[in-house]
Amino acid sequence: MNAAATVQQPSYTVRGFGIIKRLGSGATATVYEACTEKNEVVALKVVMRDRNTYMRELRVLKEMRHDRIVKLFRSEENESYRKTGPFLIVMELEPWGSLSGLVLWGSEAAQCMRDVAIALQYIHRKGYIHGDIKPANLLRDGCGRIKVCDFGCCKKIATDDDTVFRRPQGTPAFMSPEAYRGHGGTTACDVWSLAATIFCVVRGHPPFMGQNLVEKIMYGAPDSHRSAPVVCCEEESNLAHLVNWGLSKPARDRPSVDDVLHHPWMANAEDLRARDAACHLFSPSSSEAGSNVSAHSNSIESSTHIGVVPSMSPSIFLAKYTVV
């Protein structure tokens, strides 16, 4: 837990936790920056009524012990009022916030997305899929590393004989085609979401926008993901290839997370960092790098009805940033 030196005065309390400010909210829960009775600063997730979601997330977080996953401090599962809610989950607070609304460049993007892939590799090996990978669920710690949070949509990996329809869960702009069909129980769904997230943190918006989101993700323009990328350097070609591969419509055509980690764009992240420093390959102005994009970025991620037609095909989205 963070030290108490910079604790702000709480505006009100929830079961002994002083609420400092709201960090974010979703369909079933809200997350606050809060302080304990010992003035330790934590992230407090308040799940209002959905006990099943609460218990599922709590069960998964207890299994996750990894430095790329947000750490669980404690919960209220043994309290008498846990049957009625609201339910509380106390987690470590990452002071740099999430990647939502940020544009990353060059090696910074590669390093951050590699952290996410490492976390997904661990989650999949534990027998789960995350189910809601997106910039808002990727937190930056004090060293700039990424930690995955929000396991409210997490579920066990489906087996070959698991044909039960699953109610679609997740964030529409980052959900795979099969997730919309109710078959979102495979690791390929997380890979699609990771590819869409990579696109988003580089371009500043999800790969599909406009009207008829579900139809476009499920059926629209698959050939646009396969066309040759228009790029002027090897790093951008690698990035375009990885995004296009991850956004393959058929789940069987997507890479595994292991494939993603061995892909040249991620495997060469350290080389990219050195090259960025040497020749400013992806160098925006200081006012742009890592800066917030348009104010509606949060609504893009959280909306339950997001449109679709990409403003730029994923296969050519890097052309804007190439160095001639």
Helix content: 25-40%
Unreliably modeled segments: 221-232, 281-300, 302-324
Q: Please write the CATH class name of the largest domain.
A: Mainly Alpha
Largest sheet: 6 strands, antiparallel
N/C terminus separation = 47 Å
The gyration radius over C-alpha positions equals 20 Å
Total discrete domains: 2
| Strand element count | 10
Strand order of the largest sheet: 1-2-3-4-6-5
Domain Protein kinase: 17-266
Keywords: ATP-binding, Kinase, Nucleotide-binding, Transferase
Pfam family, one: Pkinase
InterPro entries: Kinase-like_dom_sf, Prot_kinase_dom, Protein_kinase_ATP_BS, Ser_Thr_kinase
Explain what the structure shows.
This protein has 324 residues and is of the alpha+beta class. The protein folds into two domains: 12-91, Phosphorylase Kinase, domain 1 (2-Layer Sandwich), CATH 3.30.200.20; 106-321, Transferase(Phosphotransferase) domain 1 (Transferase(Phosphotransferase), domain 1). 31% of the residues lie in helices and 14% in strands. A hairpin with a 5-residue loop joins strand 8 and strand 9 (146-148). Helix 2 (106-125) packs antiparallel against helix 9 and helix 4 crosses helix 6. The longest helix is centred in the middle third of the chain and has 20 residues, at 106-125. The protein starts with 11 loop residues before the first strand and ends in a 22-residue tail after the last helix. Residues 221-232, 281-300 and 302-324 have low confidence and may be disordered.
